[in-house]
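Reading is simple: each integer encodes one residue's backbone shape. An example follows:

___
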Amino acid sequence: MPGTLITFEGGEGSGKTTQARLLAARLRRRGIDALLTHEPGGTVLGERVRRILKARISLQPLSELLLFAAARAQLVASVLRPALETGRWVVCDRYADSTIAYQGYGRGLDLETLRRVNALATGGLQPALTFLLDVPVEEGLRRKGASDDRFEEEGLAFHRRVRTGYLRLAREEPRRILVVDGRRPAREIARRIWARVAPLLPVRGAVRRCAAASPRGKGDRGMRDTPERGIRRE
């Protein structure tokens, strides 16, 4: 597929939404046709599912899973694949890894079942790169503040399980999932993310020069991949 899919993951208050927006904006400034979208959402069905999930109604974990899967299947079929097939870049705020972290580790649903559901919903569409914004649970919830989100209302134990799930995914797929310290200043995080995205840019004209000119600034001096227990960290 000629396009490129980049996804952002993380727990509550991790800063992933901010970084997804910053990356999409920077790609556009470099002349890249970039689409920014999110889950659940990005389609009429997805936004309706989002409203259902935000409503104060009791949902069984399996019902929650299937709502997310329905929204994802619609997004992939009607937005992501068509955009990627025309060569566009797609930046997505949450994707299939969220299901493993939240419904798997958080809710306790069977991981193999979740992987099969994800495969069905995505049709096998995998991101080229995933940035996992990692922050301590307490800090993330403090950043987020009061909210009516069903996940933010969960206790600390739930969010710790979610974080554990994300970090295990990063250990399992270190080439795709890059763990970024979400406690760093937003601009520094954006620079580090760009340093990983720039080599994927089309090799032509100004874009080529931009990719080559992504040197480490003062704040990035000495930055390198430092696997820690199998995790690729920035």
